[in-house]
Write a structure and sequence with these properties.
Blueprint lengths: L1 E3 L1 E3 L2 E3 L6 E5 L6 E6 L3 H9 L1
Parallel strand pairs: 1-5
Antiparallel strand pairs: 2-3, 4-5
Length: 49
């Protein structure tokens, strides 16, 4: 499974609260990736970067 972090200021990082969500193949239902779920604070940090 592919883990997808956030990209803030050119650096990969997890969401500040550690939350993620899963992306599934729509045909098989198989989980194919786990993606960092950005918070408002993560978005603010990305804009400031």
């Amino acid at each position: 499974m592919l883990d997808v972090p956030l990209l803030i200021g050119g650096q990969s990082c997890p969401a500040r609260d550690g939350r993620t969500f899963e992306r599934c193949n729509p045909v098989t239902g198989e989980v194919v990736s786990r993606v960092a779920a950005a918070t408002l604070e993560d978005a603010d940090a990305a804009v400031a970067a």
